[in-house]
């Protein structure tokens, strides 16, 4: 036991102070040192011992008191001890500044260190230890050049000063000048500290050659001085990696015995703890990790024991302590992925997934090539974000493949499960099939699975294991490693979803054959048998599972459900209670099943007791509410609570609950809840919203049952029945009968529907013959349906009363007789109505014919009138052309006479010529000409004739050219045949006017006796002014 002795002043006595029993309060020891005026070297020894024990405050208190002005004045002649105290304080604050992370505090520490070193220099500016301390301070501040100069000042006075040489070697090492650092370390081949330093320098390169040489130097140092704690620690570290734990323990125990230096002891304890940790002795490992932590002042000094201690505490289940130690490691190494993953795992155990997820994501960002970080993150995301979890798992799988590492079965299984939950069954089979493909390929099980199976033996085949016995008898090895059982089970689940139940059942039976204690295989086969209405086989398989594990909650719950379906209420209740008790009342599904039992007990078909019914409802509500308090997102409990509210008539609350459950279930693929859709439809039905109820039932059928569920079809038919949509009700019931032909209740409902349809039709005040005929046909069908039900041998087993059936038959026959009478009357009325309609149709056709004939006659008259008008217009145009030609001829004759007079011809000669021309043949009469006197006479007569007609009120006409009857058309068409009619007197003009009036309009009568008027002749009327104009021209 180390002790120091303080001499008593003016006496030969000494005060003995045990260094391992120093007082907690340093004031006591200071009082002794001051009172006895103890040498300063004792002050320094006691302060250093306090520091070794981790009592830093006492260490500072003694040294600061030892460097106070009072002590300086009293010990003015003692130079070296005063400098040593000041340098110790300077070294302490240099160390604090080096490890401090905050800039302001770091600078404050460096200022304090500088102050103490400067004070020491004022005592003796040439003291080497002070310059070495300054060099260390400059190294801590990162000023390598000034530090090198400080060490050089010492070496200039003592070229073999080892601390200064080590300081310069450290500067070279920090600058990366390893060869120069090695030269400085090689000054003394037998210097243990130099050999250790050289060994450390070699080990830092992480090269195999240098590591081997570094360990040789450590061994050389150990041979020179076997009690060098540093070399012992490095040798122990080497033997730890070689697996020689005996040497590790022996070397570290020696190092602990020979050193009192805290950091060195921390390394020794750490090596010892690692050895026990690797051997699985967590108790001793934790004890030595804790000792190492105590020897180091903080995690910044030596962080590794904190990490090891956290690992051991995590293994021992001390999550809080482990969390604290890993957080300390993270303060020193904020980007250490192993620490981040460890903390994430702890937060998962503490049910703080948000913090865990944040840590895992940070780890993946720091090291995106770490597959384990992605695996941990994916495991955490499975319950919250399945899509993100799938992407994370795929990233981990790709990283493992890229690194040529084997992909774990667990990873493939998780990827397959996530694809399964997304409904991507074909994709999920690829991940489930890959791990088991080679196992099954050896024995040819794939071909066996695809063999055709006899439909009659499918049900009993669920328990048949002889197939695999025959395979082994044939020499085929049926091997199924335990680590692949879950993968094979999941593959069978996917095949179930793909409706390949034969292959799935083969895989389940294979698992049962190799591992009879695997209860999930029994339960899946029981579920398949139940889906095929083979209740007995399902019960047997569940019984087999219970033989393996009599408290299996899943098996008990399935058994209770089947008992409830078989109307075995007492057994079902006991089974549900057993399931609940087997899980210490922690299984929420068992509580929901008990709630369902109470609900169905309140709605049994037996005679209800209102008080008992209310009790069952309250118990069901209590159980559902209890589950929701523990698991607010439990959809089954919420659905059950909604059912209770609906039964109590609180439809709005029930509908709100059902709607929320429906929305929540729609967002999760692996949650199939058709019940909530049906319940929403039931609420609409109860509120009289038949259209919405029909729509909801139809959506449920299409979404969950592929329109094939007879029970939902029955609900739909009932809605149509209440809405008096008889034909839709009948069609829906016929669909249900097609799905369940042995269900006699559906047939009875069809008969009732036909009966109701017929009754409602016959009660109408106005009905058509077709409706009555349809009623007769439907009544005949109803009689036939009820008669078949009445003749059934197992009538009572279906819950029917024979007298009730006979009553329906008699009533339908009575309705049929009445319907026949109504049908005959309606047919006679229809015949009479048809005859009346035929007569009216004939009359309408006659009227229509007359109307069309009249319209046709009018059209013909209008057409003839238009044609006549067109002819008149054309004749007028032709007549105008002839008149114009006549006038042109007359003008030409007058011009010829003027020319002849100018030539000296006599009028007599002209008259002779004209006389001669008149004697020409009849073919030339068309070119007859008049003399000037005759022309004047012609104009004069026309003028008077027209004047007289004007005065007499006759129309202004110019009877120059008359069109005759159709016989004269040819003469008029030929210009040469046309002749002028000269009106020599007024009487002729008057006669022409009378003839024109007489022949202008002629009346006649058509075939039907109706009069119509038409123009037979058109006389071209030309006024005198027009004639004068033409003659003047």
UniProtKB/TrEMBL annotation:
Assigned GO CC terms: Cdc73/Paf1 complex
**Organism encoding this protein:** Salvia splendens
Top-rank lineage group of the source organism = Eukaryota
Q: Alphabetically, which GO biological process terms does the record hold?
A: regulation of DNA-templated transcription; transcription elongation by RNA polymerase II
Please name the GO terms that the record assigns under molecular function: RNA polymerase II complex binding
Give the keywords, sorted: Repeat, TPR repeat
Provide the protein name. RNA polymerase-associated protein CTR9
* Segments of this protein annotated with the region Disordered: 847-930
Q: Where is the composition biased (Basic and acidic residues)?
A: 847-880, 913-922
The segments carrying the TPR repeats are: 266-299, 303-336, 337-370
InterPro entries recorded: Ctr9, TPR-like_helical_dom_sf, TPR_rpt
Query: Sorted alphabetically, which Gene3D superfamilies does this protein's record hold?
Result: Tetratricopeptide repeat domain
